[in-house]
């Protein structure tokens, strides 16, 4: 089991947001997590990534057989966890090349591997840029500085391609994307899928799942996963909306 979440409770500022999450993700799987605003989707991704503002009050998370919650965020990354942010931040003054080279070599150091030479790194970067059609001009600028929303999302998937995580969490990657950018981002995610890795796709809308086809769909509502099924569940939500889920849980 790559990821095993058991009865996870978490809060921020004293307010409980996650109220007993149970989720299992195996290698080779794509899971979609859907739900209305305020249901806890982004909180779940932040907790898994180790955001310090969120406090886990009970439950456990095993990642690749290790206790994820005991690790600092940088170790979670080196162990193979990747989070694509809903709103990627800009980092003025830090070039994309230097940023990615530091990240890649830090991961290699963690695994006991030698750092990549400048030539080998640039070759790898050229290969991965093609997956998401990232413009050379963007790659030579500061991280996300002056990027459009679509360019920032492409850059996130490019970073994912460079780091080759075991588990990628895509937090509303489709937010603000036009259809062409959505297709490019989804193509990148699909290209990076292997039998050894997995992805959790967090989204409000079914349209992303036309391009990134999930094996399992979960509905997160008021801090709990209240329904789990195949891809058809996303289509049902698109048709009926989330009021239907409220009826399902007896509200």
Automatic annotation (TrEMBL):
What keywords are assigned to this protein? ATP-binding, Nucleotide-binding
UniProt cross-references to InterPro entries, sorted A to Z: AAA+_ATPase (IPR003593), ABC_transporter-like_ATP-bd (IPR003439), FeS-cluster_ATPase_SufC (IPR010230), P-loop_NTPase (IPR027417)
In this chain the ABC transporter domain maps to 3-247
Does Cell cycle count among this protein's keywords?
A: no
Any one GO MF annotation of this record: ATP hydrolysis activity
According to its UniProt record, what is one Pfam family this protein matches? ABC_tran
The record's CDD domains line, in alphabetical order, gives: ABC_FeS_Assembly
Q: Tell me where on the tree of life, at the top rank, the source sits.
A: Bacteria
Family per similarity comment: Belongs to the ABC transporter superfamily. Ycf16 family.
Please name the PANTHER family in this protein's record.
Answer: ABC TRANSPORTER I FAMILY MEMBER 6, CHLOROPLASTIC
Q: What is this protein called?
A: Fe-S cluster assembly ATPase SufC
Per the record, the gene is sufC
